[in-house]
Amino acid sequence: MAQRLGVSVSYLSQLETDDRPLTSAVLAALGRAFPLELDALEADDHTTRFAAARAVLDDPLFGDARLAPDLVARLAEQQPELADRLIALHSAFRAAEERLQILDETIGAGADQGARLPWDEIRDWFHEAGNYIDLLDRGAEALAAELRGASDNALVERLAGAHGVTVEEMAELDASAIRRFDASRRALLLGSALPAESRRFQLAWQLVALEMGRDIAAIAESAALRTVEARRLLGLGLTNYAAGALLMPYEKFRTSARTLRHDIDRLSRRFGVSFEQACHRLSTLQRPGGRGIPFFFCRVDLAGNITKRHSATRLQFARFGGACPLWVVHEAAAIPDRVLVQLAETPDGVRYVSMAKGLVKPSGRYDRSPRRYAVALGCEVTHAGDFVYADGLDLERGRATPIGISCRICPRTDCDQRAFPPTDRAIRIAPERRDIVPYTIT
C-alpha cells in the first residue's frame, strides 16, 4: 500500500495512528489508488469535500481534460468555501436537469403530476431515498446474524418458534399464486411451482413482515404519498427490500461482491438468490461510510417497458415508455440465459459498462405462458476495474454505443433508431430527399 501511495511504510503507519495529518498529496494518492475506499473516511470533512469536488470536476460537462487529483485536493484544502459552493452549484444543476427530464417525459406521456399512479409514486420515493433504507437494512442484517445465515431451515424454524407460523405447500388450483398467509391458522402457504430461490425469498418476506412490521408501517405512514393505496404499495416495497437485505446481509454481501468483482452468477450461488435478486441488491449498497460501486439497475419486459429501475449513477431512466432501442438490454430480452456486455455513452459524454441478461420465469404449467424479461446492471467506466463484465472491453479507444434516455429528450441529431424527434427541437421536412429518419432536427 505504501508503494502504491508513494510514501514510506513508517509514514503510512503514522497516518494510521493519527500521528501525521492526511495531507492533500496523500489524499490525492488515495483517490488514485483506492477510489472506493474514500467512503471509509467520510467522517473527515476535508476528505468528503475532496471526494465530492473530484466527482464534480470529473463531470464531462467540463470537457475531456480532467484536473489532476492534487489540484482538486489543494482546492478542497485551501479554498473550502469555494469548493462547497462549486459542489452545491453542480448538485443544483443536476437536480434542475432531472426535473426538466421529468417534466418533458410527463408532458410527452400526456400526464401531469396529479395523475401519477401509485406505482410511479413509489418508484420516485425509492429513488429519492437513494434506494437505501438504513433502518430496515441494519435490522435485517442483525436478524441474519442472529439466525446465523438465512437458510430455508433457519427461516422455517424462526417462523415456527417465534411466531407460531407453519409453512405449507399450496394446492395447484390457483396457478397464479405465489404466497398466501392464513392469519387465522398461522399458516404460510407457498406456490408448489416456486424455484428454490423464490421460495427462500417468500419465507424471508413473511419473517421480516412479522418481525419488522412496525418499522415498515412507520416509514410508509410518514411518507408524503397521496393515497392509501400508495402507502400500502410502499409497505410491500419496503418488505421486499427488507427480505432482500435479510438474504444478502449488507456488509457480507458487499465484501463478497468486491471479492468476486461483482460476478452475478457467483454471488447468486453464494447467497442462494436469483440472478435478478443479486443485481437488485447491488443497486442498494449505498450505506454512508460503506458504499458499494454506484450501479444502475433495471428490468425490461419484451415490449420494452421498464418495470423496475434505480440508478445511483448519473444515468437516469425514462419515467414513461421504454428505454433507448440501442441499449443492449433489448437484445438480451430476446436471448434468454446469455449475458451480453456493452460499452455505451450517454449524450453528456459519460461512458458506462452495461451487463444485460434475458431471463425466463416458468409458469409451472403448460397452459400459462412463462414470463420473459431482461435485467441490466451497469456502472461508469471509472469503476470498470471492479466489474468483471468490463474485462475484454477497450474502455479507452473502443467505440461506445451512443445511447440516450428516451427519444423525447435525446439531443442526438444523427440517430438512425430515433422513433420521434425531441420535444424541444424543431424539425425540417425536405420532400426532395429521404433518409432513414424522414426529417432533420434543427
Description:
By secondary structure, this protein is an alpha+beta fold. Helices cover 43% and strands 13% of the residues. The protein is globular and about 65 Å long. The model has no long low-confidence stretch (mean pLDDT 85).
Q: What's the pLDDT, averaged over the residues? A: 85
How many distinct helices? 16
Overall, the morphology is globular
Give the helices and strands as they follow along the chain.
HHHHHHHHHEEEHHHHHHEEHEEEEEE
How many strands appear in the DSSP assignment?
A: 11
- Main beta-sheet strand count, sense and barrel state: 6 strands, mixed
**Poorly predicted spans:** none
Key traits:
442 residues, 13% strand, alpha+beta, 11 strands, 3-stranded mixed sheet, 6-stranded mixed sheet
What are the SSEs and their pairings?
Blueprint (H helix, E strand, L loop, with lengths): L1 H4 L3 H8 L7 H10 L11 H13 L11 H10 L1 H29 L9 H11 L5 H14 L4 H12 L2 E4 L9 E4 L4 E4 L5 H16 L1 H10 L5 H20 L2 H10 L4 H8 L3 H8 L13 E6 L4 E6 L16 H6 L5 E7 L5 E11 L9 E10 L20 E2 L24 E2 L11 E2 L1
Parallel strand pairs: 1-3, 6-9
Antiparallel strand pairs: 2-3, 4-5, 4-8, 6-7, 7-8, 10-11
